[in-house]
Amino acid sequence: MAYGGTNVNPLAATGGSTTVRQVKLDKECELRIETSLDLPLRLRLLTGTAEIFGTEIPPEIWLTIPPRLKFAVFTWYGATIEMDGPTETDYTADETPMISYINVHAVLDGRRNRAKASPSDSDTSQGPRVVVVGPTDSGKSTLSRMLLSWAAKQGWKPTFVDLDIGQGSITIPGCVAATPIELPIDPVEGIPLEMPMVYFFGHVTPSANIDHYKVLVKELAQTLEKQFSGNAESRASGMVINTMGWIEGVGYELLLHAIDTFSATVILVLGQEKLCSMLKDVLKKRPNVDVVKLQKSGGVVSRNAKEKLCSMLKDVLKNRPNVDVVKLQKSGGVVSRNAKVRQKARGYRIREYFYGPSNDLSPHSNVVNFGDLFIYRIGGGPQAPRSALPIGAEPAADPTRLVSVSINRDLLHLVLAVSYANEPDQIISSNVAGFIYVTDVDMHRKKITYLAPCAGELPSKYLIVGTLTWIEN
Ligand SMILES: Nc1ncnc2c1ncn2[C@@H]1O[C@H](COP(=O)(O)OP(=O)(O)OP(=O)(O)O)[C@@H](O)[C@H]1O
User: In this predicted complex, what is the ipTM?
Assistant: First the structure.
């Protein structure tokens, strides 16, 4: 449990408790909970008002929180919470960065209002495009979620863009995706999946194919740009873009690539002195960059800040007016997850796609002939035969080449995406309809068995494969 930067009240810690109990929260305090590994927790608001990551919880109604969830119930004005069931840990904290986060929201809200009031064909009609950056386990997804829920509560329809292929907040890992957020995000159900725009990368780290990752980020950005041009409401509401925790070397390059590709106007740097200082450095070459002071203490960004990532970003972005790099404090409640826990979390996320967050969906098992499906992977193989190259040149693997994959038992336990492409050569630039999971490959009968979220024929015969695996259990 990470307690850093948080004033934890040890007397209030009731870790592992199983009885029905009440917790009184003072104003601006939060109750941090990790639910048990195998049992849900019931929780309700008895008095006052409270929210879970930006979404208000209704009074009196019992919420059933699934196992393994780490979250906080925060109150602005005071509340009493009742819990029924076991937890791994629960404790109250009276020091949180929530004031600085809501201040960011207020600034973004002002910008949305200004965008809305501008003529729809003007540059100023674009609302804030916020990129949330920071190392792994700095609370990026959580802050993104809060900013989106607070905006939706006020009637905006911000677009959530998730570039974090390692975990996946919108859909399964291995994808870059975007979806409009029209209502505060449900603490249990998560982000509604009605209208996501999903591009399948197929790996959980971009280093598997950096060029392919960049192509997909660009495709997603271009698609959103088109959508925004015909939708003044979405345009004014802007975007919140969640990024990966990989912030060094190529990871840092990819951050800059995302900032440029999405024409970001606000960069929120979470809990990373080095990253913040790097970004600031980059920005300082751009005139007229405003560094906005958004927090009373702790996370205040000052022009003299020495933190590396922030300053690097500022340096890079310094020739760009209207780009703000803001350093924010990481919440002491953010829970660190090691590689094994992350891998497990990926598995749960894929399970959730097929079975639902509360196990309320019934996926279908289908059997088809090998000839009914055309499977491709992106990248690999020589770009051109040696004979076609200038003398002395070595054939290089083309990272964005489409390679046909023959069906064999290597596909077992892989998760494949169903492309919306009409022709194979459109696959790399097409978004996907959904995913299937290969459960059997019968080489003798030339039949493949897969799990799909719904019955019937797949929306397309073109499938994309990467290295994303899942063992159903
Ligand atoms: N205030 C809090 N109290 C309790 N748990 C929290 C709090 N804030 C975040 N968490 C939990 O900590 C975990 C990590 O947070 P989050 O996913 O936001 O980090 P991240 O920086 O996006 O991680 P990643 O490394 O995957 O990019 C999540 O399970 C989240 O629910």
Answer: 0.98
